[in-house]
Amino acid sequence: MGGPIILDGDQNTQQRPSDITPEEEATFKRIYMSILLVNILVNLDHGILPAATKEIRRDLKLNDVELGVLGSIVYLGLVLGSILAGYLFQKYTTKDILCITILLNMIALAIFPLSNLIGLLAISRFMVGCCQVFLTIFFPVWVDKFGYEKKTMWITYLQLGVPLGIVIGYIVTAIFASLNMWRASFYIQMILLLPGLLIFARTDQNYLSAQNDIHRSAEIILQTDEEHYLLTMSPRASIIISPQDLYEPLLEENDKMEREMKPKNENTINILDEDFDNTKITWLNNFKILWRRKIYLYSLLAISALLFVATGTQFWISDYFHEELHTPKEEVYFWFALTLITSPTSGVVFGGKIVTYFGGYSGRHTIKILLIFGICASLLGLMFPFLKEFRNAIVTLWIVLFFGGAVMPPATGFSS
């Protein structure tokens, strides 16, 4: 089997096309800033619930199990939504998908503070997860496609949106909860998402497309050398892929599709949309091909384990510090908020800088970097349950989240 797919260019960057005008470059920067802000705002609710668990339990008359369901069902929505996302991104325009999902996200946020029925509350949180997954998938794809030489750091900054959104939601809700106004946090998040919706609605589809540069007129050019094919799907997106990676999985899964894609001559082949039916590439075929990418799977498992710990920590740690370690709630709010805003964010920046220094996401040292960061986070995480002093626990938690944040740039960049 051939080597892994890597991004074209100087290891992990693409050179900016010479025909891009200053106006287009300004548009890319504006869209990126909008993506950054929306990425922060859609994560506010992940900090709202942990900061007001006591008040939500009291006002909505929930027990711990029901509250845990509301905290976790959003991730079920993320999982199930991701199954549909690939199909919908191929079938509909990116602009329409972004606008609809942000609008539905706003509606779901409005439902939660207006209801006290556990079923409706669960539907609201599930809808939030389903809507957020489209943004979670699209944002790094857009950066990978339009970031060019700034791609590595743009993805790194994009990773900061998750912890920043959580900590902002946590701090704001902690203030509102002390005034018995936790519901206001959901309304504020809903209102703040409106400008992002309007910006995407007014942006030209050509600058948002995640479908191979408007795949209706896509052209695939295969150029060969002794070891690799250069697969160029557009002037702005290309990958280097070994012949075995390109043909072996497709040959095993779909002989007909392999024969259609196989170059007619040694150097190039052009396939226009009217001649190329991408529905032949089924979801099951894609899944089987991904299943063979062992490094991708290992990276996915690492990210899953990291998010398992991070999610449980952010949701229950306030109650744990307050009730088990007997720490005043005001002190818990301050130090945990400070930890959230400094630890994973600095870890993400640190990880991104280290990966960039050693050759980028596709550099040969990426796996080693990922392994070192993961081991550090795991060893310190094993110590945490045995700490009985709040000071020791919060310092250890800070270091765990730091290395967890450092894992994200190499893991997400390498597996993307």
Structural notes for this entry:
- The chain is mostly helical and 416 residues long.
- The chain is 70% helix and 4% strand.
- It has 15 helices and 4 strands.
- It has helices spanning 22-41, 45-51, 53-60, 64-91, 94-114, 118-146, 151-178, 183-202, 243-253, 255-261, 283-291, 294-324, 329-357, 366-383, 390-415; strands spanning 6-7, 221-224, 229-234, 237-241.
- A 4-stranded antiparallel sheet has the order 1-4-3-2.
- The longest helix is centred in the last third of the chain and has 31 residues, at 294-324.
Layout of SSEs?
Layout: E1 6-7, H1 22-41, H2 45-51, H3 53-60, H4 64-91, H5 94-114, H6 118-146, H7 151-178, H8 183-202, E2 221-224, E3 229-234, E4 237-241, H9 243-253, H10 255-261, H11 283-291, H12 294-324, H13 329-357, H14 366-383, H15 390-415
Antiparallel strand pairs: 1-4, 2-3, 3-4
Helix pairs in contact: 1-6, 1-7, 1-8, 2-7, 2-12, 4-6, 5-6, 5-8, 6-7, 7-13, 9-10, 12-13, 12-15, 13-15, 14-15
